[in-house]
Amino acid sequence: MALDDVRNRIDTIDTELLRLLNERAEMVHEVGEIKKANGLEFYAPEREESLLTKLAERNEQMGGKLPEQSVRAIYREIMSAALALETDFKIAYLGPAGTWTHQAAISKFGNSVDYLPQTNFADVFDAVARGKALYGVVPIENSTEGAVSHTLDLFADSPLKICAQVMLTIENNLIANIERDQITKLYSHPQVFGQCREWIHRNFPAADLVEVSSTTRAAELAAADPHGAALAGALAAELYGLSIVESSIQDSTTNTTRFLVLGRKTCPATGNDRTSIMFAVKDRPGSLYDALKPFNEFNINMSKIESRPSKKRNWEYFFFVDIKGHCTDPKLVTALEELSEHCSFIKILGSYPDTMRPE
Ligand SMILES: O=C(O)C(=O)C[C@]1(C(=O)O)C=C[C@@H](O)C=C1
């Protein structure tokens, strides 16, 4: 076929696709009206999960040319447009624009919704609690650096629930607008310095390390410093017109950060869920051991445990535990009841799809 003929064929397909997308948008609008009338959540992570899984399966069955990742990316944007049609959809995130949290939020909610950058973790929680944003996105743990303790601490006094998680592969780069041999100062977020510790030791052992509040701020400062460079993502480099001097400098090739989506309600069960809880145990010997025993008894997989000072009383700790399953599963209900007997405080932070696939 001649080039023009193929392009004409593509034009016809695109017109048909557009007609179908608008037909879908009509349906989505109807879903939105039903949700409004019934006070339901507009964002439905469980439905998105099952839809994306089904589409990936169908694509494979039909021997589709598109890789699964592309199908998911295309539908991410279709659903983003759907959410924007259903309501005034705002997402608060740890800003400024260009941070890894911003990228995680976009990878979950797409480009059609509005994003509200916040200056710190508390403001993200606050924006959602006060209804300035429908959802918030915060980092919770990194595969090499561990827990983000700021986020954990904020759950103690928050009414918010976790409704989804986002896994993002983190690629840090050395970015600057000067030559490599002119660099004497490195700007970045402390977590990123931690993720690139060995690389810094090998490449810039004498450089001054300046810790700042975000990788975007690091890029901004590096752009104005004749001897400075930043360790940050590609989006931050683009925002401040910096070049990537060296890409992918993190010590671990599988450097991944897990982010949480916070909202007012948790997510319904999908069959593959994770539940996050926090609790404080009574002050007596063996209480933590006793508290965790029901998980063993009921064969519930515990994937994570962290502890943080409660900040309410000296030497009292909050434990943050993630378990496999949904908080409405009968065996989880019983195990959590048993656990609560050993606790001076317990809170279910939420149940949500346990997708470990990086976006
Ligand atoms: O099915 C729904 O609940 C919708 O709101 C529609 C839709 C979609 O585009 O398919 C959009 C957003 C939701 O998060 C999930 C699915």
TrEMBL record:
The cellular location(s) given in this protein's UniProt record come to: Cytoplasm
Pathway entry:
Metabolic intermediate biosynthesis; prephenate biosynthesis; prephenate from chorismate: step 1/1; Amino-acid biosynthesis; L-phenylalanine biosynthesis; phenylpyruvate from prephenate: step 1/1
Q: Which reaction does it catalyse?
A: prephenate + H(+) = 3-phenylpyruvate + CO2 + H2O; chorismate = prephenate
For this protein, the record's SMART domains field holds: CM_2 (SM00830)
For this protein, the record's Pfam families field holds: ACT, CM_2, PDT
InterPro entries per the UniProt record, alphabetical: ACT-like_dom_sf, ACT_dom, Chor_mutase/pphenate_deHydtase, Chorismate_II_sf, CM_dom_sf, CM_II_prokaryot, G/b/e-P-prot_chorismate_mutase, Preph_deHydtase
Where are the residues marked Essential for prephenate dehydratase activity as a site? 257
State the GO CC annotations: cytoplasm
Give the Enzyme Commission number.
4.2.1.51, 5.4.99.5
Q: Which GO terms describe its biological process?
A: chorismate metabolic process; L-phenylalanine biosynthetic process
Alphabetical keyword list: Amino-acid biosynthesis, Aromatic amino acid biosynthesis, Cytoplasm, Isomerase, Lyase, Multifunctional enzyme, Phenylalanine biosynthesis
Q: Which domain of life is it from?
A: Bacteria
Instruction: Please provide, alphabetically and separated by semicolons, the GO molecular function terms listed in this UniProt record.
Output: chorismate mutase activity; prephenate dehydratase activity
**Transmembrane intervals:** none
- Protein role: Catalyzes the Claisen rearrangement of chorismate to prephenate and the decarboxylation/dehydration of prephenate to phenylpyruvate.
Q: What is the official name of this protein in its record?
A: Bifunctional chorismate mutase/prephenate dehydratase
Encoding gene per record: pheA
